[in-house]
Design goal:
The protein is mostly beta strands. The chain has a single domain, classed as YVTN repeat-like/Quinoprotein amine dehydrogenase (Methylamine Dehydrogenase, Chain H, 7 Propeller). It has one helix at about 115-125; strands spanning about 1-5, 20-25, 35, 45-50, 50-55, 60-70, 75, 85-90, 95, 100-105.
Length: about 130
């Protein structure tokens, strides 16, 4: 189970730490971690390099989902809201729902630049 503990200490980087991810079971050996927040800031998804993925409600400080994917996780982000998040794993990118169920596996990697979707949509309309 993952939970957040508030602190005001600095950890060698000169920046104050607002939240430190800690765990009942020691998860520090599963990092380093990558984080993403929803636009509202209510939800956070964290993924450790060694496969630990956790979805947390920051208002209640309770985990929604805590799972081990048993594969290297390079990055994790939310899609349009907290219901879906893709995790870039060892070979492919997998999309999970809030319950931790794997919904889709992306076997081809596409590079999408910011604003590219809008310009492609405009070209299709013309």
């Amino acid at each position: 189970m993952l939970f957040l503990d508030c602190c005001g200490a600095t950890h060698g980087m000169g920046k104050p730490c607002l939240f430190v991810a800690t765990s009942v079971i020691a998860h520090q050996d599963l990092g380093p971690y990558t984080l993403d927040y929803t636009a509202s800031g209510r939800y956070m998804v964290a993924a450790g390099r060694k496969g630990h993925v956790a979805l947390i409600d920051l208002h209640t400080m309770k985990p929604i989902k805590d799972m081990q994917v048993r594969e290297t996780v390079r990055d994790v982000v939310f899609l349009h809201n907290e219901l879906f998040f893709p995790a870039a794993q060892k070979k492919y990118t997998y999309i999970y729902n809030q319950a931790g169920v794997e919904l889709h596996c992306l076997k081809e990697q596409l590079m999408v630049m910011p604003g590219q979707h809008d310009s492609n949509q405009q070209n299709e309309l013309n």
